Amino acid sequence: MKKLLLSAALCGLALVTISAVTSTNEPLTKDFILGNPEIASINQLGFGPEGILFLGDSKNAAIYALDVGDAKPLPGAEEVRMGDFDTKIASALGTTVDQIKINDMAVNPLSKKIYFAVTAMNGTPVLLRLDGERIENVALDNLKYSKMVLKNAIEKDAKDGRDRPLRVWAISDLQYHDGQVLVSGLSNKEFGSTFRSIPFPFEDGQDYASLEIYHAAHGQYETNSPIKTFNVIQMDGKDYLIASYTCTPLVLFPMADLKAGTHNKGRTVAELGSGNSPLDMISYEREGKSYFLMSNSNRPVMKIAYGDISSSKESLTEPVAEWAVTKGVDYVSLPMVNILQMDNMGTDKVVYLQRTSDGEMVLMSRGTNRM
Are the beta carbons of 182 and 197 closer than 8 angstroms? Predict the structure, then answer.
């Protein structure tokens, strides 16, 4: 759900962004309008350049770019350690823990402040910002913003075979990458699983590609299951979408293939266990090597090396029949369980929300040298 790319890529992106702003003398927010964007839900958060916050609203099937007035760079980030965090969030909103849900978390790479998407039980979306240990409300009714409505989103009243609403999966994850807002989710098309590339600043265009995967735990090809979390990784000089789905296939797509109007079959590089759902994914570097971490609903955080994916030519096309057995690319299970949200905090720290064994929700940071 909001993942920073590797430090080298970030540096390159920063140079491109700075060059673009310098050459035009105009910020990326120059065409933003001031007012109430009428955000109906906050499902996903992710930061782009200039401290711009991208927000995914599945109810409105729209992506918003928000100027949250938080673009002052901070060289380093303080350690984070806060207990009873959901209680503190609820208290800041004047309610109780059972009346809120924390949907997503994102760190502003400039200021290192942490943002939280929260939904009250009455359906009201709330955007909060952590400044030190102070929880601030970010008003959504009067700010500078730009908006892109998704084409062919899943209908508002669509339901799955178990009569569960599907509209929430109109936007299942998002990330800014190389001048594009990348969005996964469900469409109203025959092949519902979609991946969109939306140029930013927003214009009329949005590239739409449908996706197909082999789900080894289910023993079948699937086109209507949304990506739950994704990242963009670089291997052998090329960008790839690494995507994870419920129950838990890990699938690779070359980014160059995900063009408008195309149908793409991914390469299933791993089956990471039935009865599990991926929650979040981030990348980092350690000792000159690149890795990504994936948190899960029913398994510890998994650490996978880019190099292991690059060197593996395996493509799973046969069922993994035994319950919860994994197959494919190797991974390391870190001693980190019940991790609900993760994000990079600079190049040397990761911040995460965790539900401890005694039920407490904690917000913690950890150096990448310990991962």
Answer: yes
